[in-house]
Amino acid sequence: MRSALLADPDPEVRRAAALWECRRDARLTAELLHDPKSAAEVLRRGLFHRADAERCVAERTHLAALAENPSLPTDLVERLAVDPDESVRLAVSLRPELDETRRMSIDFTVEAFARGDVGWVRDGLADPEVLRRAATSAHPLLRRTVAQSPHLPPDLIRLLARTEDPLVEDLLGMYHPDTPEEVLMRVYARLGGTFSAWMAETHPRFPREGLAARYADHPDGNYRRLAVRDPAATPTLIERLSHDPAVWTCQAAVGDPRLPLHRLREALHVPELASSAGANPALPEDEMAAVLDRAGVPA
User: What does each C-alpha distance from 99 to 95, 102, 137, 160, 247 come to in angstroms?
Assistant: First the structure.
């Protein structure tokens, strides 16, 4: 199969097969280095003879990719760890064989909104040892990558929740079913009105009880809308919120089955509320049919 794919008449198939095989074939790695389309990837993953590795370091082509290469000799890794190019030093800092002391001794910078995509961590998101190494690291990109795992044990979730890294909190809310309530609320508070805030709000652990008392009179409409989630919110409060200055709050209230029927009927004739009102399960069946008729939906 290997030989057949490497000899395939389709050049893209041959290239893909060669990129896969070069991880254990230094000769193939050397050949691929002459292909501009393959150079960066083969530098990242190919098996190198020392002479080829030294030449690539000297030529400084795709050096950040080379800094990730698992076959790079240790002394060359150390040379790249003090390279003047910041992206190269960052790539070295992410290598899996480094212990935490050596990793954090490298002078690297991580952008505030750089989402983690560290390959060896991403590939080990179900591996308890990898999860623990990454979650207990001080390296932001390791923590951001591991925060995407749904397999984190409770102690590592608590640890990551204390990192004070907004991206870690966002990722926990998106990917982990046991994200603490306080993390979800911090995401919502920071990003109200965005996709990440919506993900936090729809998370199964997002709080419900007590929201009416806390937020019904909040100056921000994004927070007043949360009051509708509270099981203890009264029909009177829901009706009041259906007249809120913030349209998102109105829509949430109008879609709630506790809304008094007279207000629900009114909302059906308000353009920005009609869709939410029409979806309200408390709307009588005959009036639902009338809504569908007006919309031209066939019976």
Answer: 9, 6, 9, 19, 52
